[in-house]
Amino acid sequence: MDIKGMDKDECVLESAKNPEEGGFELKLDNSENTVFLRADKIDFKNWDIQLEKHLTRAWSMDTESHTRSEEWEIDLAKLEIRNVIAHGTYGTVYKGLCDGQDVAVKVLDWGEDGIATEAETSALQAAFRQEVAVWHKLDHPNVTKFIGASMGTSDLKIPSKNNPADVQNSFPSNACCVVVEYVPGGTLKKFLIRNSKKKLAFKVVIQLALDLARGLSYLHSKKIVHRDVKTENMLLDVTRTLKIADFGVARVEAQNPRDMTGNTGTLGYMAPEVLDGKPYNRKCDVYSFGICLWEIYCCDMPYPDLSFAEVSSQVVRQNLRPEIPRCCPSAFVSIMRKCWDAKPENRPDMDEVVRLLEAIDTSKGGGMIPDDQTRGCLCFSTARGP
User: Fold this and answer.
1) Region class of 200: left (phi > 0), else alpha (psi between -120 and 50), else beta
2) Which label site among 23, 234, 334, 347 has the fewest CB atoms less than 10 Å from its CB?
């Protein structure tokens, strides 16, 4: 029997030798016949050639599939890490350089090696892949531009504090990183703190609010729920344009709201349903946006004198919300109250919020201070702010 050209997957060569023929037993798939052949008549060299061609073809197809599904993956060798920008719950942010462009590199650490189970790590990595596949397609002036990501950090070199020439990598094996544009103006939170005494002109308040509203409206249109909307996660560029950042807990919105549960976000900005552990959807971002509106207008901190437990209990059980200054324009107050309504279904969608903000007339002031003055607002008897 001539077996040259036969696919090696189509037959199995058994080690049981036939003593009468001096050959090996060769069993054919989908056949009840057993054929005995002489070992010296089998063309193993041709088999090896055919097998190598088959494996090369399979490897090539797998590589192409890998490239197609992970076009967002960045070559970490292109990154030059400079210094630490910030530390957060989900990792560390570094300033760096990539192909001549200033970038921010966030290393996400899902737990120290040995802490998370293999199943937990796999689930987190799968979710990360899904979200990054969406992030890399985002393109909006009020959302930080995504540049790339990596499922590993083994090739990421961090300069030593004492000797910049000395680079090292000390990240856990399950860490990953996200690379986005570097926004030089700092966080919105710091900008508000700097203006805590003199406050902001009303037209500036509306401009910042509109930037944030438009960015969130865009994310929601892409089925992305940020889940941690707060002034610390908003960046300002050199022209004071606001850009939404920090997708550390962002998630592609689930088809079933019950799939989205758990305490995510920062306490003072968290919607009642999230604090109460109930299912939630993109309306949790609308609630957080309402708290941000108050903070932008007042340049103050919500609930500065309450503990975490008190905030959680009173927001859910007693409908606690930040105190609105008497001088706040009624149209602005109305938007805040709609956004932080206790019932998610009563809150407006972010595209409606954009329209409401665009309709506010800022030509006559109406904010904490007139455009041409810098004195403190008379709504507060004493200067307030963090």
Assistant:
1) beta
2) 334
